[in-house]
Design brief:
The protein has eight helices and nine strands. The protein is of the alpha/beta class. The radius of gyration is 17 Å and the shape is globular.
Length: 227
Amino acid sequence: MSSEPRSDSLRDVFVTGGTGYIGRRAIPALVARGHRVRALVRPASQLRLPLGCTPVIGDALDASTFSQQVVGCDTFLQLVGTPHPSPSKAAEFEHVDFASARESTRAANAAHVAHFVYLSVAQSTSLMRAYVDARMRGEALVREFAANAPGRAATFVRPWYVLGPGHRWPYALIPLYWLMEAVPSTRERARQLGLVTIAQMVRTLVRCVEQPPHGERIVAVPEIRQA
């Protein structure tokens, strides 16, 4: 992302999941570009937040603990998620991923936020069904939020697996992806469920914050890879 945002496009961003794998990298990128960031954090994790943002002490699973601090923000960036998702974590997808989306949309609605950016997941009918289901129901909540008032926008960012420090084992699958992309019958599936890097994800999220859509926008793996 080369060009600097104009002063009239700087955002007031409320971030959940700011101490997570993506949040720890997205917040500094937003701050470096001049955006004002408030980040929700539990008391014990406050020191893990990147410098430059304003900590908001609260619980992502209870909107009443942070909704007042969302007031004045024009953008809500939802990054809460179960670390290292796997089929064995279905209960966590329900009680963390979906529940946090529910509480975040409640807070964003009460604060009259204009743009909600939701970190979702690529759609699959056969892989990680509980995870995908929780995220799709989270998307439905965000759509309901956007439809609740004129002029609101929603962005859904849908990666499948994000490569980076501590998340490198899927590199072994790259030859398989090459093979699938070379075969017409599996090409589209390989592209939609492809691997993206943490740098691509951060650039995508910054771009989404800086360029809100009119209505709804879906950013899938092919678009993330272009960031």
